Amino acid sequence: MSFRERRAIDTEEIDKGADYQELNQCYVIFICQTDIFHKGRHKYTFRNLCVEDVGMELGDQTCKVFLNAGGTMDDISPNLKVVLDYAAGKMSDDPYVKELDAAVTEAKHNREWRREYMTLEMKYKEKYDEGRKAGLEQGLEQGLEQGLEQGLEQGLERGISLTKTVYKLFGQGCPEKEIAAKMNISVEQVRSILE
Questions:
Q1: What DSSP letter does each residue of 45-80 carry, written as one string?
Q2: Which of 35, 157, 166, 175 has its CA 20 to 30 A from that of 5?
Q3: 30 with 68: CB under 8 angstroms?
Q4: Which residue from 78, 79, 76, 65 is spatially nearest to 42, judged by alpha carbons?
């Protein structure tokens, strides 16, 4: 969560002039179908720590929790496990999961909720497309610059090598026509190099 996002949450939690310490703890929970950290855990918890001194916590009470349906460790409660299984598409006889499934089904049929969800999804897609386009443009620009530099270097190397070879063959008494054939260039180019 960025500072701006945390601040947006904080402004709704605390009155103007109130002490920052009065803020409630903020949890941001991500429910993932796959293990994005590839460690086998079902749950990863992060807090804001100082990079230079990892023992020092920021103290803003922001906590990010990644719940992973694809975990393999025995590191969560059975109740949370059935919920994560549900997120992964596995139905259960658990009463809470049945209640959750009913609420999800109802939400899917709620037009207002669907409209808000679709609007949010469209915004994410627009941002993704904008970022992808900018990345492609930047990559193309960098690729062209690198290609031009490599082409110039290789052309220069080829030019030096070509010139040396033409001089060498000419010095060995090879006629201009034969040099042109061997080097796959025109007789005029051989003469231009020798001049």
A1: EEE-B-SS-TT-B--S-EEEEEEETT--SS-S-HHH
A2: 35
A3: no
A4: 76
